[in-house]
Design goal:
single chain, 483 residues, alpha+beta, Beta-Lactamase, Heat Shock Protein 90, five-stranded mixed β-sheet
């Protein structure tokens, strides 16, 4: 039995509903059949009582004059001309005198005249006691049910005298034909009700249970860390279940927002830690590096060196200069003395990148609403734009287009750089703004790192979305009054 309660709602609700419908239908059908049986029985008793009163009235003068043959004709009359399936049709009629001896019988061979009623069998003995207990002239009609027969006893009395009792015997089998008809109709009605209600129950049961199952699965996924919305068409109504789905959707949105915030915080902390480490390493490297470069300059100033030595020194100097440039790239300082960014800076950036774009057959489309200086360091903003546009140019296919849109409103500058072509792989997305992470074999992976450091130090945010052959970087920077 516990197994039934442990079933999924998608089976339990329709199954229990079906069981209740079947039980209710059977109960109603049984009640209708029982009522029909009682109605048949009452009809039989009423019909027999009416017949008994008529026969008793006609038998009174025959018994008074002891006309046995006349009495026989009277009780035989109802047994002729009636169909065998008529429930009023008696099986036998007896006329008893005051001493409960048979005055006349419709079946003399079975119940002979002058026979003592109490000696005709157990049923007749019990009937005899019931009649003897009611000897009054106006005694009520007696009905007695035995396992096989129904007995109706009607007093034969008139003008203040009771001459005897009329007994009408019916077989209980007389109910069967009409009872079968009633039972068949009730069964057909019950089957029709089941045929209508069961499919409706299964339909509505599943409409209710399937969303519950989906909701349970969704909550289980949330517990396992998979945060997803249920399908949009899972449940379309605004009842309690619909409100539960709506609340679940609000919860999922809050959890997704929380997860994104946590991921952003973790990434920001990781990048900040990397930035601090890089800055520390850069300063530690620059000190001895500067000393080595000074030593090489002094070495060259002394003179008297052969050509091979000078070539070796030049190669060492170029290597140290490359190290200095790389380390310098990792040192980002937002608080630099710089003029505010002006519209001419955008034109300069576009002109500087025109050669690289032409070489890769890429078109740069610049859309800006900046008509006056913006309170952001021009030097750093030029570097941000150059890094983002170069990254987009290198990721674009030949004959592609790189779009850059800049909007300044409500003391906030929004920069969107979009390109079609190679997308950022998912495994690289989490480390995209870290140093030396690049999807281009020719790049060193410091452009986006530097861009992230500048945006962060300026109090802004940078985000990237890549998919469906389209990559878009969005930068949001707060601005103040222009200087």
């Amino acid at each position: 039995m516990r197994f039934l309660f442990n079933l999924s709602f998608r089976y339990k609700i329709p199954l229990w509903g079906s069981l209740l419908i079947v039980a209710a239908t059977l109960a109603v059908s049984a009640a209708l059949i029982a009522q029909a049986y009682n109605d048949l029985q009452n009809d039989l008793l009423n019909s027999s009582a009416n017949l008994g009163r008529i026969l008793a009235k006609n038998l009174f003068p025959a018994m008074l004059q002891e006309e046995v043959w006349r009495g026989f004709e009277i009780i035989r009359a109802p047994l002729h001309g009636e169909g065998a399936d008529n429930p009023i049709q008696p099986e036998m009629i007896l006329v008893l005198d005051r001493e409960q001896h048979v005055f006349v019988s419709s079946h003399p061979k079975l119940v002979p005249m002058l026979a003592d009623l109490s000696r005709l069998g157990e049923d007749y003995t019990h009937l005899s006691r019931l009649i003897a207990a009611r000897p009054q002239i106006d005694a009520p009609i007696i009905d007695y049910f035995s396992p096989l027969q129904i007995y109706i006893a009607v007093p034969i009395a008139e003008e203040g005298a009771r001459l005897g009792t009329l007994v009408i015997v019916h077989s209980k089998g007389v109910f069967l034909p009409r009872f079968r008809v009633v039972a068949w109709r009730s069964a057909v009605t019950g089957l029709l009700i089941l045929a209508i209600l069961l499919p409706i129950n299964w339909y509505w049961g599943r409409r209710t249970s399937v969303p519950l199952v989906e909701l349970a699965r969704g909550i289980g996924d949330v517990a396992r860390g998979v945060i997803e919305h249920p399908p949009a068409a899972t449940y379309l109504y605004q009842d309690e279940l619909g409100q539960l789905f709506e609340t679940y959707g609000v919860m999922v949105k809050a959890l997704q927002k929380k997860r994104l915030l946590e991921q952003e915080m973790i990434r920001s902390e990781r990048l900040a830690a990397i930035g601090r480490l890089s800055a520390g390493l850069a300063h530690e490297i620059n000190n001895p590096l500067g000393g080595m470069l000074v030593a090489l300059d002094n070495f060259k100033l002394r003179g008297g060196h052969d050509e091979r030595t000078l070539k070796t020194v030049a190669m060492i100097e170029r290597g140290l200069a490359q190290i200095r440039d790389t380390v310098g790239t990792m040192l980002v300082e937002a608080r630099v003395e710089s003029r505010d960014m002006a519209p001419q800076d955008l034109e300069d950036v576009q002109m500087l990148l025109a050669g690289e774009a032409h070489k890769r057959e890429v078109v740069i489309e610049l859309d800006s609403d900046i008509a006056s200086p913006v309170a952001l360091p021009a030097t750093l903003m030029r570097q941000v734009l150059i890094n983002l546009l170069l990254n987009a140019i290198h990721a674009s296919e030949p004959a592609g287009t790189v779009r850059c849109a800049m909007r300044h409103a409500d003391q906030r500058l929004t920069i969107e750089v979009e390109n079609a072509g190679r997308i950022v792989p998912p495994e690289m997305m989490a480390h995209l703004f870290e140093p030396f992470v690049s999807g281009d074999e020719t790049g060193h992976g410091l452009g986006l790192w530097v861009t992230y450091q500048i945006v962060s130090q300026l109090g802004g945010q940078i985000a990237v979305k890549s998919g469906d052959c389209l990559t878009r970087f969005v930068v949001l920077l707060p601005t103040g009054a222009t200087t």
